[in-house]
Design goal:
156 residues; alpha/beta; Immunoglobulin-like; binds cobalt (II) ion
């Protein structure tokens, strides 16, 4: 015999995942950005503009080079422009195991991991972390890279 309570529990458990998933899809606009990096220590874009109307921002970084992460790894790290140098300097000593990012660095708004040649990675973050018209930049925190590997990030 199946009790009424058991049936209610089964219905609830079946419905719960749907309730959790549907609002996420309906939450708003996902703005997607693609950027590549290569063995010449270059991103393919020096400026990225996102908006208006984004609720989430997804950045996908593809390392189109051939060298491994230990030799020519790249990440994509978003910061306020004023924090660029300090985040890069603290990343130097953080090591590859930490993706050359200071663990828990509150100045890092969003960051991918470091990827080697032929690899791709992405990060998704809420647009609410940004102020419209704010001064933001992105950089690669691999040691020695940010002098060349940086760009302006515009949020509108
Ligand atoms: Co790099």
């Amino acid at each position: 015999m199946i009790s009424r309570n058991y049936l209610l529990a089964a219905v609830f458990m079946a419905a719960a995942p749907l309730a959790a998933v549907v609002p996420a899809h309906a939450a708003g606009k996902l703005c997607q950005v693609q950027i590549t990096a290569n063995d010449l220590m270059q991103y393919d874009q020096k400026e990225i503009t996102v908006g208006p109307g984004c609720s989430q921002i997804e950045v996908t970084l593809t390392n189109v080079g051939k060298l491994p992460a230990a030799a020519m790894g790249h990440d994509w790290v978003l910061v306020k422009s004023v924090d660029l140098t300090a985040v890069a300097n603290d990343g130097l000593v953080a090591g590859l195991a930490n993706n050359y990012q200071k663990p828990g660095d509150p100045r890092i708004i969003a960051a991918t991991k470091i990827v080697g040649g032929g690899q791709s990675t992405s990060v998704t973050f809420p647009a609410s972390k940004l102020e419209k018209g704010g001064s933001y930049m992105y950089l690669c925190t691999f040691p020695g890279h940010y002098a060349l590997m940086k760009g302006v990030f515009n949020y509108r």
